[in-house]
Amino acid sequence: MRWGPDRCFCQDDLYTLNVGNLSTDVLEKRFFGDIDNRGRAAVKLFGDYGGTSLEQNVPEAFHNLVRYMDAQRFRTPRGLDRLRAMVQSASRNETLLIMQGVFRFHTTMWAEAVWEIARARQSPTKFIVTDDPVTFFNHRGFPGLYPYPDDVGLEHVGTRTSPEP
Predict the structure, then answer these.
(1) Mean pLDDT of 89-118
(2) pLDDT recorded at residue 50
(3) Per residue in 31-75, pLDDT tens?
(4) Please, are residues 3 and 32 in contact by the beta-carbon 8 Å criterion?
(5) Which of 50, 89, 113, 164 is the most exposed place for a label (fewest CB within 10 A)?
(6) Is residue 136 within 8 Å of residue 160, measured between CB atoms?
(7) C-alpha–C-alpha distance, residues 51 and 84, integer Å
């Protein structure tokens, strides 16, 4: 079947907090809004890197990039289900509130990692489609070893991170 991203990965009100009869999308606007704006600029800076000296704002851009990538780990139904299982939260609202406190969960590991950026300019296949905007891969993590919503963790030696552009 040839379905587009809205049909495959879209879920309405994923970050809506519900309190009684009231609901709010404050997480999407206030929490993710700033992270997205700064992250988008960081992705552009590193994506346009052409082998010349880097600009002076690289440390800030790197900080924004890893924050953006970490927030993306929780931005899918699978990401929220993974978090809910990790912290054993009782409700969706509780999971959303916990997400705000732990969204920088992987940033220290990424900051201390060796980075390798690969481009697919000459490849006819440009995208890897997954249900995660930031995917972890480890050649020892065989399919079926990590049932939904789990996946190989960044803490395992040899795990690589693959963010979608």
Answers:
(1) 85
(2) 64
(3) 888 999 999 999 888 877 665 556 667 889 999 999 999 988 888
(4) no
(5) 50
(6) yes
(7) 41
| Cβ(10)–Cβ(19) below 8 Å | no
**Residue 113's closest CA among 67, 154, 71?**
154
Q: How many angstroms from the chain centroid is the CA of residue 9?
A: 14
Shortest CA distance to 20 belongs to which of 93, 81, 100? 93
CB neighbours (10 Å) of residue 54? 12
DSSP state of 29: I
Q: Which residue, 22, 16, 146, 156, is CA-closest to 93? A: 16
Tokens of 100: 């705000």
For residues 62-95, one letter each, b for 16 or more C-beta atoms within 10 angstroms of the residue's C-beta and e for the rest, the string is bebbbbbbbbbbbbbebbbebbbeeeebeebeeb
Residue written as token pair 């800030």: 60
Q: How confident is the model at residue 126 (pLDDT cuts 50, 70, 90)?
A: low
Task: Flag whether the pTM goes above 0.85.
Answer: no
Residues in the chain: 165
Mean pLDDT, range 111-116, rounded to an integer: 82
pLDDT at residue number 164: 62
In contact, 71 and 32? CB cutoff 8 Å? yes
**Token pair of 57, please?**
């704002």
